[in-house]
């Protein structure tokens, strides 16, 4: 059985993939900068091998990739440091090739497309990013796929839309889920009535695990779409319906993001990506389904139910200690 390594494993996508591998009884390696965070997430799984790495050290990268057949790359950076994406990809590629890794899968985003020319967007849509973040993601992809073209390693990219799910804090819907469970105000990035799609994070792991064992996946780029086009307003309304909670909405558009960004670097970086709210990009994943067969997608209402069920409840605690 081939060995799989998850680089950047501590995030929610990494945990989804690890869960799927473990369900199949498949050993895997988790790699990250923060060993204590990895131990907290994976320390109870006997199938998980926990390894720390320093991407600035070629020897560390080679060691972390040693004995691995397939490397799944999910390494994140601060939202205001996207210039690191191509650099980290180059360092990881060099180390992986030196260690004899055969395959690499990049979990990507839609940023490299820029504004869509048409919807839904297929994998052959032009990549014409007009944002800095989009250019950095495109450069990252180009480095990877050039390595494949040069015969250094077999590579593929799986692009995802926005995501949500249990324990997913870096989601447009997280603050709304908090408000639905605990009351208060739901902070959202608008406009919230435009078509949008979200992938439910637990649905990602099974797809990636199937790609690992699909030789025909390598050399191409693939989309994984959500369970259907919706709007943020509809999903937030579903949260209120399921909990019976009435809560206020506070929606920040581009102008408000600029103002908040004077004090918050993360919010400042959302300004250039606000086009994804105003100019929807809906993904077509029919090519992926032809490749690996039908894909299980959790309906949005069920995904919301699971997300709310996992949300820590603080309202009762606050009342008890008042």
Q: Outline of this structure?
A:
With 322 residues, the protein is of the alpha/beta class. It is 42% helix and 15% strand.
Which properties best describe this structure?
11 strands; UDP-galactose 4-epimerase, domain 1; Rossmann fold; 322 residues; alpha/beta; two-stranded parallel ribbon; disordered C terminus; seven-stranded parallel β-sheet; 2 domains; globular
Q: Can you describe what's shown?
A:
With 322 residues, the protein is of the alpha/beta class. It folds into two domains: 186 residues, NAD(P)-binding Rossmann-like Domain (Rossmann fold, 3-Layer(aba) Sandwich); 107 residues, UDP-galactose 4-epimerase, domain 1, CATH 3.90.25. It has 14 helices and eleven strands. The chain has a seven-stranded parallel sheet, with helices on both faces.
**SS class:** alpha/beta
CATH class of the largest domain: Alpha Beta
Instruction: Please identify, by name, the CATH architecture of the largest domain.
Output: 3-Layer(aba) Sandwich
Beta-strand proportion: 15-25%
**How would you name the CATH homologous superfamily of the largest domain?**
NAD(P)-binding Rossmann-like Domain
> Unreliable segments (pLDDT under 50, ≥5 consecutive)?
317-322
Order of helices and strands: EHEHEHEHEHEEHEEHEHEHHHHHH
Major pleated sheet = 7 strands, parallel
From the spread of the alpha carbons, the general shape counts as: globular
Q: How are the strands of the biggest sheet laid out side by side?
A: 3-2-1-4-5-6-10
Query: Which topology of the largest domain does CATH recognise?
Result: Rossmann fold
**Radius of gyration, taken over Cα atoms and rounded to an integer in Å:** 20 Å
Span between termini: 56 Å
The proportion of residues forming helix, as a percent range, comes to 40-55%
The count of domains is: 2
Mean pLDDT: 94
Secondary structure tally: strands = 11
Counted by DSSP, the helix tally is 14
């Amino acid at each position: 059985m081939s060995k799989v390594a998850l680089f950047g494993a501590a995030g929610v996508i990494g945990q989804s993939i690890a869960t799927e591998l473990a369900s199949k009884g498949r050993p895997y390696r988790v790699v990250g900068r923060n060993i204590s965070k990895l131990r907290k997430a994976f320390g109870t799984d006997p199938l998980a091998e926990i390894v720390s790495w320093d991407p600035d050290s070629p020897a560390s990268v080679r060691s972390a990739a040693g004995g691995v057949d397939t490397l799944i790359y999910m390494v994140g950076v601060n939202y205001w440091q996207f210039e690191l994406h191509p650099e980290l990809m180059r360092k990881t590629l060099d180390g992986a090739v030196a260690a004899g890794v055969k395959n690499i899968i990049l979990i990507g985003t839609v940023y490299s497309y820029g504004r869509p020319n048409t919807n839904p967007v297929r994998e052959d849509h032009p990549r014409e990013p007009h944002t800095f973040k989009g250019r950095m993601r495109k450069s990252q992809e180009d480095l990877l796929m050039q390595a494949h073209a040069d015969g250094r390693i077999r590579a593929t990219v799986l692009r995802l839309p926005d995501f949500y799910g249990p324990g997913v804090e870096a989601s447009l819907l997280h603050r709304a889920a908090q408000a639905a469970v605990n009351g208060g105000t739901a902070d959202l990035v608008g406009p919230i009535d435009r078509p949008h799609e979200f992938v439910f994070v637990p649905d990602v792991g099974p797809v990636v695990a199937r790609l690992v064992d699909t030789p025909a996946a390598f050399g191409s780029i693939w989309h994984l779409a959500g369970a259907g086009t919706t709007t943020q307003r509809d999903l937030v309304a579903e949260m209120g319906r399921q909990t019976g909670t009435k809560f206020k909405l506070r929606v920040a558009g581009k102008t408000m993001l600029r103002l908040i960004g004077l004090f918050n670097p993360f919010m400042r970086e959302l300004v250039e990506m606000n086009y994804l709210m105003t100019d929807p990009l809906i993904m077509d994943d029919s090519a992926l389904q032809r490749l690996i067969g039908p894909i299980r997608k959790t309906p949005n209402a069920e995904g919301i139910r699971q997300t709310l069920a996992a949300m820590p409840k603080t309202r009762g605690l606050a009342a008890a200690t008042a």
